[in-house]
Design a protein that fits this description.
The protein is 65% helix and 0% strand. The chain is mainly alpha-helical.
Length: 102
């Protein structure tokens, strides 16, 4: 996890492209059932939240000051993905959402 690397190295942008990582996970998610995708997604979100919650306040302040490309508040990022899922469920696509199901 990026936060773990930052604890031992300088806080810097990740050399990995998030869109490429997300795109590479799509074929895996497509072969999993929706219940399993939901379980794995929620488990991963909880792990990230726990890692952020456990950060030392001084380190947290450094990440917020120096890690400009990283949002420790994951709500905005998750909202984007919820919109994509809602679009697919409403008969659209991840890129062109249909009506929202909330």
């Amino acid at each position: 996890m990026l936060l773990e690397r930052w604890k031992t190295n300088a806080i810097a942008a990740s050399p990995h492209d998030a869109d490429t990582i997300n795109d590479s996970l799509k074929p895996i998610a497509n072969v999993m059932g929706p219940v399993e995708v939901r379980r794995v997604t929620v488990e991963a979100a909880k792990m990230v939240d726990a890692a952020i919650d456990s950060l030392d306040p001084g380190f947290l302040a450094r990440v917020e000051a120096e890690g400009a490309a990283v949002r420790l508040n994951r709500a905005l990022h998750r909202e984007h993905h919820l919109q994509q899922v809602n679009g697919i469920l409403a008969g659209g696509s991840a890129e062109r959402p249909g009506r929202e199901l909330r």
